[in-house]
Each structure stands twice: as structure tokens, then as C-alpha cells.
Amino acid sequence: MAEADKVAPSVPALCREPAADGGILSGRPVAPYNHPMDDVTLPPELERFAAEVVAAGRYRDLSHALAAGLALLQQAEAEVAAFVVSLEAAREEANRDGWHSLDEVMAEADQIIAAKRNAA
User: Fold this and answer.
1) Please, what's the b/e burial string for 94-114 (b: 16 or more CB within 10 A of its CB; e: otherwise)?
2) Domain count of the fold of the chain
């Protein structure tokens, strides 16, 4: 079990601080945000937008509009985390199995295309 999981197992990986070396997930937990959201301050342009979507009937009230925005942010964060995992897996695969240069890949693609043209 990672040291960070022993400290705060309930803190999701996306809520961990970036590593000092620039890595995205260091494993160190960030203090959770536990403040009530009764008093949310938005920049004027977002406040106007929220008022407009509520007035247009797209959302019941400001809370629902903010919840929809946070749901999108949550989805985006999950997608970023999944992308980072796929990059790490690709790096591990390249380190294990080797990699090809762009020139090698392009040459192989050209050969495949030429073979398809010749077969037609």
C-alpha cells in the first residue's frame, strides 16, 4: 500500500498534489475542501451567464447550474486522469518493447498504402 493511501485512503488520486518533479500524481494527499458552499462568489461574466441559463429555464436555480458545471469539471478531471494512465502505460510498453521513430512508422504506412494500391 502506498504511503499516501495509508494517510488518507479516501482521497481520490485526482485530489493529490503534483510531484515536485512535475509529475501529475505524486500520491501525496491534498487537504480536502470541507467548507460549506453557501456563499459562492463568481466572476461577473459567470454570474451573468448563470443568471441567464436559470432565467431561460435550462436550470431550476443557481445550485443546479453550478452542479452541472461541476459535473462537467469532474468528468474532465476523470478523462485527464485516464489519459495520464494511458500515457504511463504507453511509456512502460515502449520501455519494455522498444519504440519506433516517426520515420519508421511513416515508411511502414507508405508500404501498406502502396501494397493496397497495387492489389487494387
Assistant:
1) eeeeeeeeeeeeeeeeeeeee
2) 2
